[in-house]
Amino acid sequence: MEKLILSFTRFAEIETKNNSSLYYFWCKKIIHDEEMLQLLIQIPASQPKPNLFFAAIQFLLMRYDDPLKRYIPSFVLNPLPIEESYSALQKFVKKYEQALIQCFQTRRVQTNEVRRSAYLYPIFSDIAKRAQKPLALIEIGTSAGLLLNVDKYCYEVKEGDSFIYYGHLESQVLLKSENIGNALTCYRDFQVSDRYGIDLNVLQLQNRDDYMWLEALIWPEHKERRKLLHQASTIHSEVPKTLLEGDVLQLLPSIIQNISNAHQIVIFHTHVANQFSNELKEAFQQTLANIAKDKPIYHVYNNMYDENIHVDYLSAHLNEEIRLLPKAGSHGQFFSWC
Fold first, then answer.
1. CA dist 56 to 35, 164, 203, 215, Å?
2. Cβ-Cβ contacts under 8 Å for 225 (sequence gap 6 or more)
3. How much is the pTM?
4. In degrees, to the nearest 5, what angle opens at C-alpha 43 toward C-alphas 41 and 15?
5. Does position 10 have pLDDT exceeding 90, yes or no?
6. I need a surface site. Which of 27, 45, 52, 58 has the fewest CB within 10 A?
7. What are the backbone dihedrals phi and psi of residue 323, each rounded to the nearest 5 degrees, phi first?
């Protein structure tokens, strides 16, 4: 129970305090609500409990009409006062307890935040310049695969008092972010030869429930994120990619075999590895080392051991960190280029 309380406390203070006043308020109430905590302890240990719980609430509210909707900005333009919302949440939880438990057992935290592409694009641009080859992108924990369209979005990035633009400048999807680090030097266009995504549960945007779940994972006040999800989904089907469902340790070697040596393999994942067990992290790193004996790879990631963004190069004779970026905004709203 102490770990559960700590997870909601951390979520409140670190994630939602300045980003979601509703979730912040609910977290502060939940940590003192023993009955609510008894329900939440049923969320699988591998999942970030606050994220899954709040997403399940929004997901069910998309299906059922309930007074709780009147307090949530994602459902009404003028929500009722937050201070009055918690009793409505308690009543909703009691009414739909079994449906919530089913969500806990069948759904995962799979936020597919397209704005993270804002820092992935210059990272991939740098890799393409180093390798002088088209990139074969492989995303672990791909969700619906929206980050695999990284070169199909247009980016507006604030640097100091000016803005820079890169990516597909005529794209109907414009992603805005801020670089609070050194000036960007790597954002030239690059070629993508292959796009693969791996997930235990691939989300299909054409499936109504899957799309609703992605929307439910977006915090109530974040209207821009919902807009971007909709825009990105409109071009998603136009970009050929292969999304595979299953165990990454089994699927990854077979994917690698299909990639030509004329292409540079880039394996990446964002905000996923925190759901890996220590045993899986070790096995995953060993799998990458085994792959690199035959084909050099770049590994781009965060949340394996810290929140920084790492860019590693692995080959038969070398394991080198070529770039390290400090923690970026969890929704891609800012990053720090180094």
1. 18, 38, 16, 11
2. 113, 115, 218, 219, 331
3. 0.93
4. 95
5. yes
6. 45
7. -155, 145
Segment 71-123, tens digit of pLDDT: 999 999 999 999 999 999 999 999 999 999 999 999 999 999 999 999 999 99
CA–CA–CA angle 266, 176, 7 (5° rounding):
75
Quick one: which of 211, 213, 273 has its CA closest to 248? Answer: 273
Rounded alpha-carbon distances, angstroms, from residue 93 to 33, 99, 281: 12, 9, 35
Cα–Cα–Cα angle for 232, 233, 235, rounded to 5 degrees: 75
* C-alpha–C-alpha distance, residues 291 and 257, integer Å: 10
Query: Cα separation of 202 and 4, whole Å?
Result: 27
Q: What gap in Å lies between CA 5 and CA 30, rounded to an integer?
A: 8
Find residue 135's DSSP bridge partners: 192, 264
8 Å CB contact between 267 and 297: yes
Residue type, 241: K
The greatest distance separating any two alpha carbons of the chain, rounded to the nearest whole angstrom, comes to 62
Determine contact, residues 273/303, Cβ cutoff 8 Å. Answer: yes
* Closest by Cα among 309, 253, 238, 232 to 138: 253
For residue 137, give every residue at least 6 positions away whose Cβ sits within 8 Å of its Cβ, in sequence order, or none.
Answer: 124, 148, 150, 192, 194, 195, 196, 266, 268
